[in-house]
Amino acid sequence: MKIPYYPGCTLHERARDFDDSARECAMALGVELEELPVWTCCGAVYPLVTDSVMDILAGVRNLSYASRLGDKVVTLCSFCYNVLKRCNNVMRDDAEKREKVNLFLRADTESREKIESYTLEDYEGQLEVLHYIEMLRDVVGYDKVASAVTKRLEGLKVAPYYGCMLLRPKKEMKFDDPEQPTIFENLLEVLGCDVVDFPMKTECCGGFQVVNDEELAVSCSQNIVVSALKREADIIVTTCPLCRYNLDRHQERMAERVDGFTSVPVIYFTQLLGVALGIDKEHLDFTDNSVDPINVLAEKSLL
Amino acid sequence: MGERIGVFVCHCGTNIAGVVDVKRVAEELADYPGVAYSTDYTYMCSDPGQNLVKDAIKKHKLTGVIVAACSPTLHEATFRRAGTAAGMNQYQVEIANIREQCSWVHRDNKEAATEKAIRTIKIMVEKARLDEALDPISVPMTPRALVVGGGIAGIQAALDIANAGHEVVLVEKSASIGGHMAQLSETFPTLDCSQCIMTPKMVEVAQHPKVKLMTYSEVDDVSGYVGNFKVRIRKKAAYVNRDVCTGCGLCIEKCPATTPSEFDEQLADRKAIYTPFPQAVPNKPVLDAEHCTYFLKDGKCGICAKVCPLDCIDYEQKDEFIDFEVGAIVVATGYDLYPIENLGEYGGGKYPDVVTSLQFERMLSASGPTGGEILRPSDGEVPKEVVFLTCCGSRDTESHLPYCSKICCMYLTKHAMLYKHNVHEGQAYVFYMDVRTGGKGYEEFYTRAAEEDDVLYIRGKVSKIFEEDGKVMVWGVDTLSGKKIEIAADMAVLGLATIPNQSAAKLANMLKIHADEWGFLSEAHPKLRPVESLTPGFYLAGSAQGPKDIPESVAQASAAASKVAALFAETEYHREPIIAVIDEDTCAGCRVCVSVCPYDAAEFDDEKKVARIKEAICEGCGVCIAACPSGSAQQKNLTDEQLYKMVSAALEV
Amino acid sequence: MKLRLTADMLVDEVLERVETLSGQKLRACYQCGRCSAGCPVVEEMDIIPSEVIRLLQLGQVDEVLSSKTIWICASCLQCASRCPKGVEFSSICDALRAIVLRTRLATPKIDADGLTRVMMSDAPQMGVVGALRKLNG
Amino acid sequence: MFEPRIVCFFCKWCTYAGADLAGTSRKQYPPNGAVVRVNCTGRIDPQHVLWAFREGADGVLVGGCHPGDCHYEEGNHKTMRRVQYLKRMLEDMGVEPERLHLEWISAAEGEKLVHVMSDFTEEVRGLGPLELGLSDTAKAVAPAK
Fold first, then answer.
1. Does residue A238 carry a pLDDT above 90?
2. Distance between CA atoms of D109 and D104, rounded to whole angstroms?
3. How far is CA B107 from the centre of its chain?
4. pTM here?
5. A84 CB near a chain C CB, below 8 Å?
6. Which of B255, B299, B300, B615 has the most CB atoms within 10 Å of its CB?
7. What is the per-residue pLDDT for D137?
8. A227 and chain B: CB distance < 8 Å anywhere?
9. Which domains does chain B have, with CATH numbers?
């Protein structure tokens, strides 16, 4: 089974581990992620001002590329997912903006054709934008995932961290219950984990503010990590490179601020999935973590 | 033809005359065929105005009257009475609506409004020219009332109707009457004990010779119309012969199966065979087959049957259906709490120390699961800090319910106060948006809570509640100081929104009475007819109509009862005669009318091979008339001929 | 502290712009404060979110535009998600930023030095792009 | 400007009450309609509608209770079917079916009534006067006045 895949910039640069592990897992599950032959940055943040037609052009351009390959597009990074899904909604529901954006798309094609010989078609919001985890549930099926598990992650206490962008705005994302989501937990149960339910799983990690105001991000992330630690999580899994960065990179700072802080590894859910599917750890790329996850996984005899 | 129609154009002060040229209207109508007299007057509905009509009827020997004024819903009855007083048949008095549907809506176009007024009156003149003198249809009245719901509103309505001398059938779906009021501890603003004032009423209604009490029963079907309803009550199988049972309680004591108690809001267990609470009326158990070992394990148990000294247990019992004829129906189905599961940000019910307002009532109640002690459900400790939250699901147009649930401000104030009386050294916080104390003694009650019992009121809405370190963490805000507030509390109590009882929607549908989009039953008029439904014969009492506190529910129940008593004061009920009639000479006997009538009012006479309308049942919708291929079916005073002429008049230039 | 309120303070061009740009109706807010109560970064703000809306309701645009608050918001949308009146503070915040940045009322939040630092950091690209778009316009 | 003539058949429980509400709320709408009040839209015979067009109506508006809200259980369902059938007939007769409009307007929907009245008036205005060109024979067989 081939599914169009939009990785986004971060997964091709600083989150290669996320991309690699996701592709390995997909392959193990019989899915070929077909990367769009041409794609650009999605814009990273969805504009919250109403007059921002230009600002959604990047997202729509990628949707238009993807629409040639099939009726779905899968993405992994929470930010990309948020932007693509919301751009898709606008193109589907807002006739006025749709027309304007398509005008821009046509102009874009004219200037690009010479370089890439790749034309952009008008886009009407016809794609289904899927997050990788939705793909696992709805396209592959959790039962099939379960039967592909070769190493049940029994005894491993995993805290699933959703963050913001998968769930909100709730009316547009329709990803899961924005207050008590379960899609992540259900996947972890399939893998045999002990799921740690912690109240900060939908709180913000500080997001992009880390770039300008690291303190802010440390505070936000600390609340999340400490809450997971209080419930004795062995490991935290995320679905977003920025969340992973914030929760993982600042743990030394957290240790300075919180008495008795013990560090906890933060990995991508695809890396954990890879372990359960028995994929070699070299392919899962546990090299970019500030807090090394290998020890914890080895301790539980999972690697 | 010899019709002599009088046209009376009302100015309604400037309401009509300020837009419509009333003089011109009266003058033009004077020349219209069939019109014998036409005039205008400042206020037609005033005494002199009515006298004008009466005098003209006599003086000009009028055969029909058109009052061109406000909507017929307002003064049709007034002028029909005036017509009758002057010797005219009331159904020959008609209203032309030139206010609500003319002068008020075409303010900016006086010329067009005047022309529309003329057309509107001509339409009614054409109707009146062919209106016949009719008599209201008398139907016998069954002076027996059905009251649905055995909470305080239903009990009060039943008692008042019964005390007025009429029979009442009181139907309650659970095993005991009492409703939510029986669950409450003490009541605001007087803090008298709910059970103490409720129990005597429960006993009184159960023992009243005019009241037939049917608990563990539901309305299964209703047909008919005001004065003559046929209702079918389903008496659910209780597996206990409750007529013989003395309520000794041996079966309950020995029953091995338990399940969470609805009455105690899941804070304690009850047996599979149970009475909901010790003071239940009737104090006789029912067996809940869903949780009974005998039923779940194919007859392996049967302890209750073995211990019952009177052999009351009957595992073979089936639902029973009992039919009644009643003349009026009072709906008092009450309220439920908005499901806590819908409030995920407060844990959605997964934190044991975040409780609902009714759970907290049970904790406060001396007969409740904690014997009136306030103890944390998680560990049984006395909570030192308790947070109370108003508007949990209320006043939320975005995700929950837009309306104010009305009673939460007050009951949470009461909760906070009673908690403080219980735990003197404890601290109570109330998060509020506005403390709504619109009731006698309510503001004083709130003041007492804040000043004497040191309840801290914090103005803001809580965003999130979660558990951390054995505490209930509350993230709120104080908008008055502009600070985010975090409280590590021991317990939180949610003032969940009031919603109509979930069985009410089904019932409203069956009874064909209107409900609003939230399921609260609609009154006939929000101000002037607050206890009647739009459908004749149905009356509303208590929270079924909208969130209400106890005094209001009782007042509304008594009001509904007085309406029922007034209805029953007549031995006959008069119905509008604007119904269908079939010309037997031209009827081809095709039975289309029989097939389309929603009331089974059209019947086929097998001997004569023609259809006939049952006068007492026809509601006058006219569906059969529009369907009749031969034109044999007609509506009295709204015949096809009248309609054609009215349409033509509507189009006169 | 005193505010002399006049009718014409309440009809302001910039206020209208905030409503248009954000797509939010300021008067719909009934000041329950839930946006502030659930805000993960409220600690760093000088004016809490609900007060920002209140000040706008009172026509105090300048005070709001010069606040620290509007640069602190991380667009996590928790406020918008829980607002009982469907008023999205996050969008109002973005509109206020846009007004400042488009009219050059203030210099971009990430200056040239900051830019170099950011580019050299190992923060994920999405964070860098996001911050530049949100804070520098 | 062409002022269309519109006959409005309103049921007394919902739409007529909705029109009253528009009045008590002092909403404004075009004065082109004249209202014929019936107990239920189910009373309206297709012939009444045809008669209206024959007598010079440019448009006919039928207003009743929302499905499920009919005071007489299901009169409005029958109307729905009759109107659908009538529209096809009108088309066959060379009359734009848009000249006949059915709308559910409850007693609480004064605002909706205003919109419907305004929009329908504009729509019929756009269609222009109805030219039936009835032959004498057609006039002769039309229902007696």
1. yes
2. 9
3. 37
4. 0.83
5. no
6. B255
7. 58
8. yes
9. 5-130 (3.40.50), 144-236+319-334+501-568 (3.50.50.60), 250-307 (no CATH), 335-499 (3.50.50.60), 576-636 (3.30.70.20)
Contact status of B578 with chain D (Cβ, < 8 Å): yes
Question: Whole-angstrom Cα distance, residue A154 to residue A193?
Answer: 5
Spell out which residues of chain A touch residue B466, defining contact as CB-CB under 8 Å: 199-200
Distance CA B164, CA A90 (A): 65
Distance CA B219, CA B504 (A): 11
Binding-face residues of B in 586-605 toward D, CB within 8 A: 596, 598-599
In order along its 137 residues, chain C shows pLDDT tens digits of: 899 999 998 988 999 999 999 999 999 999 999 999 999 999 999 999 999 999 999 999 999 999 999 999 999 999 999 999 999 999 999 999 999 999 877 778 888 888 888 778 889 999 999 999 999 88
Contact list, A199 vs chain B (CB under 8 Å):
464, 466-468, 473
**What is the three-class DSSP state of B146?**
strand
| Residues in B touching C36 (Cβ below 8 Å) | 460, 477, 479, 482, 484
In this structure, what token pair is assigned to residue B233? Answer: 């009550």
B95 DSSP β-pair partners: B67
Does B534 sit within 8 Å of D13, measured CB to CB? yes
Q: How far is CA B33 from CA A146, B60, C26, in A?
A: 87, 15, 60
Q: Supply the Cα-derived Rg of chain D in whole angstroms.
A: 15
Dig out the tokens for B130 from the structure: 């062919």
Q: So what's the ipTM on this one?
A: 0.84
For A15-57, the pLDDT digits (tens) are: 999 999 999 999 999 999 999 998 999 999 999 999 988 889 9
What's the confidence (pLDDT) of residue D145? 44
Amino acid at A202: T
Higher pLDDT, B437 or D75: B437
Q: Among partner residues A170, A206, A245, which is closest to C124 by beta-carbon distance?
A: A245
Q: Domains of chain A, with CATH numbers?
A: 2-130 (1.20.1050.140), 150-299 (3.40.50.11810)
What does the pLDDT average to over B19-31? 97
Residue B4 has pLDDT above 90, yes or no: yes
pLDDT tens digits for range B478-521: 999 999 999 999 999 999 999 999 888 888 878 878 788 899 99
pLDDT tens per residue across span B218-245:
999 998 888 999 999 999 999 999 999 9
Chain B residues with beta carbon closer than 8 angstroms to that of D37: 72
Asked whether the beta carbons of residue D31 and residue B112 sit closer than 8 angstroms, the reply is yes
Residues with pLDDT less than 50, chain D: 144-145
* Interatomic CA distance for residues B288 and B298, integer angstroms: 15
Whole-number pLDDT of residue A114: 63
Average pLDDT of chain B to the nearest whole number: 95
Residues of C with CB under 8 A from a CB of B: 30-39, 42-43, 47-48, 50-51, 54, 78, 82-86
Cα distances (Å, whole numbers) of residue A222 to A206, B318, C76: 10, 62, 16
CB contact under 8 A, A48 and C93: yes
Q: Are B223 and B236 in contact (CB under 8 A)?
A: no
Which residue out of B346, B392, B466, B471 would a mutagenesis test of the A interface target, given it has the greatest number of A Cβ atoms within 10 Å?
Answer: B466
Helix (H, G, I), strand (E, B), or coil: what is residue A266?
strand
Å between C136 CA and nearest CA of chain A: 11
**Whole-angstrom distance, CA of residue B496 vs CA of residue B394:** 7
Which of B94, B114, B126, B647 to mutate against chain D (most D CBs within 10 Å)?
B647
Note the pLDDT of residue B514.
Answer: 79
CB contacts, 8 Å: B464 with chain C = 37-38
Contact A227 B468 (CB under 8 A): yes
Number of B–C residue contacts, CB under 8 Å: 73
Minimal Cα distance from D13: which residue of B?
Answer: B534
